[in-house]
Specification:
CATH topology of one domain: FAD/NAD(P)-binding domain
Strand content: 15-25%
Strand order of the largest sheet: 7-6-15-16-17-14-18
Helix content: 25-40%
Mean pLDDT: 92
Number of helices: 16
Shape: globular
Largest sheet: 7 strands, mixed
Length: about 525
C-alpha cells in the first residue's frame, strides 16, 4: 500500500487518502487517468482507519475517529463498483434509562424504530416517517447531483406538496419537526435527536439541526445504507476501496505530506511536499477539510466570498472521542439480560427523566466553553467472541476551547466524567475499564489532521449547496472532502461526485481543444 517511489508527474493528484480521496481516485483511474494519492499519515483511511490505542490491551483494534458508516446511497455504491464488507445490526439502537425495565431497543432501519414503540408514539412515528420517506424518495438523485442551494434542491427534486415541509425541516430544528407531529414520549424524542446530532454542534432546538435528522433518516433507510457497520476490522471498508483503486491503476503513497498547492496564475500546477519535492499536474483534488484546503492554497489566491464561506463553517466545538477497553461487557441496570443491546448504537442521554432538558444543558455548557456536567454519549462496542472488548464513545457536546482552563489540564477529569455517565446507566462499568484513551477536539485535530476535530469536516446542520462546492476558484483544483456537498456523514459520496465533475470538465476542455484545432 505505501509507495515511496518516484513522484512522477500524473494526470491527477488526490491529496489525502481518506474514504473520499480513495473513492475519487478509484473513479478517475477507472476512466483511464494516471492518478497518485498522497497521504500525509503513515496509513490511509482518514477518520475510518483502524488504530491500536490501548497500552494495556495492545491487541484490541479501535476506530481512530468515525465508527458509523453514515449515508451511503445505493446508487453511489453501485457506481463505485466495490463490494464493501458490511453487516446489518439487529438490534441497531439501544437507549437505556436508569430505571429497571425502561429502555428503547430497536431493530434496524426506521421500521425497526417504529416496531419498538407502541400506542401514540407508533402512530406519530408512522406519520412522521411517512413524510420523511416521501422526501427521501424524491431526494434520491440529489445526493449524486451537482450541489445547489436547498431552495433549488426543493424546486428541482421535491414534489410540490412536500417542498414547504422539506425547507422547514432542513432550515429548522429537530424539536420543531417532532412538535409538528406531536411525538409524545420524552425518551423517543430524545433518542431521535441524539441519534441525529453526533456530527452537529447543536441540540434538538438548534436551527439547522433538522437537516441532520433528514440525513440520519435517509441513512437508516435501505436506500441509504441502513444500519450497516464494518464487518470485522474497522479498516476493512477503506482497504476495499483502496484495493479497487490500485487495481484500476491508481498509485497510493502514504507518509508524504503536502505542504502547499502549486498555483501558477489562476491555475493549479501540482503540489509541493514537505520535503520540498514537487509533483506536477494540472488537476488536483483535495480531500482535506475546508480550512486546511484554504491554508494550502493561501488567501492571496482566493476571492473574499470563498474565504467568507469557509469562515462560516467554524463552530464552537465538535466531539470528544474516548476509546475504552473493557475486561468484559458492562451490564445495564434497565436491561441486565442479554438481548443484543451491546451490538447496537447505544445512546446514553443526560438529564434522568428529562433527557431533552439534559441535551439542552449540555450544549449550553459546551457553547460557553465549559465541560458539560452530564454529556450525552454515543457508544458502539466492537464484537468479539471472547476476552476484552473495545468500545468507541463519541461525546458531541465538546467545546474546542475551554473557558479558564486547558484541555491538557482537564483530560483526566473529562475522562472520568464520561465514564461516570456510563456508570450511572451500567453500575460497575468503571471497574471493568482496562484502559481508556481520550481525544478531545484538539487531539483529534492533531491525530487526524482535521481542523477543530470535526469528523465530518463541516457541521451536520449544513447540506447541499451550504457545504463546500467541488469546484474551487482555482482552475484545475477541486475539493472532495467530507465538508463538501451533499451532507455530513455521507460515505464516499463527495469523492465520487467530485471525480465525475473532474471528468466532465476534462471532457469539456478536450472538446474545446478539438474544436479550436478544427477551426
Amino acid at each position: 500500500m505505501v509507495d515511496p517511489g518516484p513522484m512522477d508527474d500524473v494526470d491527477a493528484i488526490v491529496v489525502g487518502g481518506g474514504v473520499n480521496g480513495l473513492a475519487c481516485a478509484l473513479v478517475l483511474a477507472r476512466h483511464g487517468l494516471s492518478v497518485r494519492v498522497v497521504e500525509d499519515r503513515p496509513a490511509i483511511g482518514g477518520s475510518f482507519r483502524p488504530d491500536h490505542p490501548f497500552a494495556h490491551a495492545p491487541g484490541l483494534a479501535a476506530h481512530v475517529g468515525s465508527h458509523r458508516l453514515g449515508l451511503l446511497p445505493r446508487d453511489a455504491l453501485r457506481l463505485l463498483g466495490v463490494k464493501l464488507p458490511l453487516r446489518t445490526r439487529d438490534p441497531a439502537l439501544f437507549v437505556p434509562t436508569m430505571h429497571a425495565g425502561r429502555f428503547l431497543l430497536a431493530g434496524p432501519g426506521n421500521e425497526g424504530l417504529r416496531a419498538a414503540v407502541s400506542g401514540p408514539d407508533a402512530r406519530t412515528l408512522e406519520a412522521m416517517h411517512g413524510e420523511l420517506d416521501a422526501i427521501a424518495a424524491d431526494l434520491a438523485p440529489a445526493w449524486l447531483a451537482a450541489p445547489m442551494p436547498v431552495e433549488d434542491v426543493a424546486d428541482r427534486y421535491v414534489r410540490p406538496a412536500l417542498r414547504g415541509a422539506f425547507l422547514a425541516l432542513v432550515t429548522g430544528s429537530i424539536g420543531a419537526y417532532l412538535d409538528r407531529f406531536a411525538v409524545p414520549s420524552e425518551l423517543v424524542r430524545a433518542a431521535i435527536a441524539a441519534d441525529a446530532l453526533v456530527g452537529t454542534f447543536g441540540t434538538w432546538d438548534t436551527p439547522g439541526s433538522g437537516a441532520a435528522l433528514l440525513v440520519q433518516h435517509v441513512s437508516r433507510s435501505p436506500e441509504g445504507g441502513g444500519d450497516a457497520v464494518p464487518d470485522g476490522d474497522p479498516g476493512a471498508l477503506v482497504q476495499a476501496i483502496a484495493a479497487a483503486a490500485e487495481k484500476a491503476g491508481a498509485t497510493i503513497t502514504a507518509g508524504r505530506a503536502v505542504a502547499r498547492l502549486l498555483v501558477e496564475g489562476n491555475s493549479v500546477a501540482g503540489v509541493v511536499l514537505e520535503d520540498g519535492s514537487e509533483i506536477r499536474s494540472t488537476t488536483v483534488v483535495c480531500n482535506a477539510d475546508p480550512l486546511r484546503l484554504r491554508a494550502m492554497i493561501g488567501d492571496a489566491f482566493l476571492p473574499p466570498d470563498y474565504t467568507r464561506k469557509i469562515d462560516g463553517f467554524v463552530r464552537g466545538g465538535s466531539v470528544t472521542k474516548l476509546a475504552v477497553a473493557f475486561a468484559s461487557l458492562p451490564r445495564f441496570a434497565c436491561l441486565p439480560e442479554e438481548r443484543g443491546q451491546h451490538g447496537a448504537t447505544i445512546h446514553l442521554l443526560p438529564g434522568g427523566d428529562a433527557p431533552m432538558a439534559g441535551l439542552r444543558a449540555a450544549f449550553a455548557d459546551a457553547s460557553a466553553g465549559r465541560l458539560p456536567a452530564a454529556p450525552p454519549i454515543e457508544m458502539i462496542i466492537a464484537p468479539a467472541a471472547s476476552g476484552p472488548r473495545a468500545a468507541s464513545l463519541l461525546v458531541p457536546c465538546s467545546p474546542y476551547d475551554l473557558e479558564g482552563t486547558t484541555w491538557a489540564a482537564e483530560e483526566e477529569r473529562w475522562t472520568k466524567r464520561i465514564l461516570d455517565v456510563l456508570e450511572a446507566f451500567a453500575p460497575g462499568a468503571s471497574g471493568l475499564v482496562v484502559d481508556a484513551v481520550v481525544q478531545p477536539p484538539k487531539k483529534l485535530e492533531a491525530q487526524l489532521g482535521i481542523t477543530r476535530g470535526v469528523l465530518h469536516h463541516v457541521d451536520g446542520s449544513l447540506v447541499f449547496g451550504d457545504r463546500l462546492p467541488y469546484v474551487t476558484p482555482i482552475t484545475g483544483l477541486y475539493a472532495c472532502g467530507a465538508g463538501c456537498a451533499p451532507a455530513g456523514s455521507a460515505f464516499a459520496v463527495a469523492g465520487h461526485n467530485a471525480a465525475k465533475r473532474v471528468l466532465a470538465d476534462l471532457e469539456l476542455g478536450l472538446e474545446r481543444t478539438e474544436a479550436g484545432q478544427r477551426s
